[in-house]
Amino acid sequence: MDPITLGIIVAVGLIFMMAIGTPIAFALGGVSLLALLYDRGLTELTYFGETFFDRIAEFGFVAIPMFILMGAAVASSPTGRDLYRSLDLWMGRLPAGLAVSNIGACSIFAALSGSSPATCAAIGKMGIPEMRTRGYPDGVAAGCIAAGGTLGILIPPSVTMIIYGISTETSIGRLFIAGVIPGFMLAGLFMIWTIIACKLAGGYANPLAVSAEKLKNTVQQNVDSNLKAVVRVLPFLGVVAGILFALYGGVATPSEAAGVGAFLCLMLAILIYRMWQIGPIKLIMRDSLRESVMIMLVIACAEVFAYALSSMFITQTVAAAIADLEVNRWVLMGVINVFLLVAGFFLPPVAVIVMTAPILLPIILAANFDPYWFAVVLTINLEIGLITPPVGLNLFIIKGIAPDISLRDILLGSLPYALCMVLAILLLCLFPGLALWLPNLIMG
User: Fold this and answer.
1) 61 DSSP 8-state letter
2) For 100-132, what is each residue's pLDDT tens digit?
3) How many other C-beta atoms are found inside a 10 Å radius of the C-beta of residue 27?
4) Which one of 37, 154, 254, 255 is most buried, counting C-beta atoms within 10 A?
């Protein structure tokens, strides 16, 4: 059987297993095992086990559970609440200020947690009820939080950037810096659309929801509380700044910086919020362990899947076919982005990166694209999948937070933000320096 036909059969089998509800890691591993047994026989079982364990035994992967622990310490403490209050204090008077401050809170919380679902849940639990109370449209309230949560995989430190760096053997520190300007540019685009959406909806001060006088009194009463919240959040921001300095200054490796950051965030959560009981600490450890095991299992099975494709010459055949396309390199980039967009509709970012990055990198380099610039484009592309069906993880998190908001309103409120992400990708194509200027300035 020729490699292309075999590849189509493998792809259909993988889609079928995921369609019937098989977890992604088991679907990848099961399809890989069956394909190897068909192509090579029982002797391949030995290589299956070796490939599975050898990949996740790399020291660089230590950074993943450590950054996840750091994010869990922040997400499971009242840090998100304090961050939300702090930004509401300073940005609440702007046009559509509360919704804009929610996106700002998502941007900063993304840097603290590195996780899109954690960002979406932590800020959404406070932001959505408050925005609805103040008369913001349901679509805006849900959409800005769903979109703001996606920033967790772009603004450093980002777990997905670590996985991309290990998969492609590129500098993780440089990847982190490359995501800074695009991350805040995307947050700015979100804020602009939020202001426009509120004006198109006829404003956001609903007198039936809350009177102006009552709102004024509430703000006056909460100023002191919000100022204290600012003070409590600053040490966590200091930890993030210290991690980035250690990485960019060559003081520590990503794994070392992640370990120190996780320890400091855990200690800060315990000391600042007096989380002395075993219950909250146990919850942090449980959430960290669960997410870490899930990601590492996906990585290991994706590596086996990539090995299976390579053994059957599927990867090489597809890569050669794409490379032989006599088209403009920007047309090639468009084709790759459409492929990533479709993959992101059905798979989480981690799975897409470990499955496609090693295959796409040689094609990207052959077309004279920068791998760090491509990492940012790829990440923004995968962010779209977090707020679009059928998977749309952030959409379902919002639905869980506000079950009385229809999924239709959540989706319609989120789609304009997906267009903002498409605009961000176009801007990066027109001005690659948005992703490359800062890494070149800092790291040469």
Assistant:
1) G
2) 888 888 887 777 777 777 777 777 877 788 788
3) 23
4) 154
Q: Angle at the Cα of 242 (from 237 to 246), degrees rounded to 5?
A: 155
Q: Under a CB-based contact definition with an 8 Å cutoff, are residues 272 and 235 in contact?
A: yes
Residue 145 included in any domain:
yes
Q: In angstroms, rounded to a whole number, what is the distance separating the alpha carbons of residues 36 and 34?
A: 6
Answer yes or no: is 270 within a domain: yes
How far apart, in whole angstroms, are the C-alpha atoms of residue 267 and residue 328? 53
Amino acid (one-letter) located at 86: S
376 vs 382: CA distance, rounded Å? 10
Which percentage of the chain shows pLDDT scores above 70? 86
Q: What's the number of CA atoms in the CB half-sphere (13 Å) around residue 99?
A: 33
Q: What is the residue whose two structure tokens read 């903002």? A: 420
Structural domain includes residue 120 = yes
CA-to-CA dists, residue 11 to 27, 314, 390, angstroms: 11, 11, 18
Q: Is the peptide bond before 390 cis (omega within 30 degrees of 0)?
A: yes
Written as six digits, the tokens of 128 are 């959505």
CA-based nearest residue to 166, from 86, 74, 62: 62
In a domain, 18, yes or no: no
The C-alpha atoms of residue 211 and residue 221 are separated, in whole angstroms, by: 15
Residues composing the chain? 444
Give the per-residue pLDDT at 17. Answer: 84
As given in the structure block, the two tokens for residue 281 are 């600490």
Instruction: Check pLDDT > 50 for residue 210.
Output: no
- Can you give the residue range of the structural domain that contains 432? 3-13+23-443
Q: Report residue 312 as tokens.
A: 């059957």
Q: How many domains does the chain have?
A: 1
Asked if 368 and 375 count as a contact pair (C-beta separation under 8 A), the reply is no
Name the token pair of 208.
Answer: 């039936």
Distance between CA atoms of residues 363 and 353, nearest Å: 15
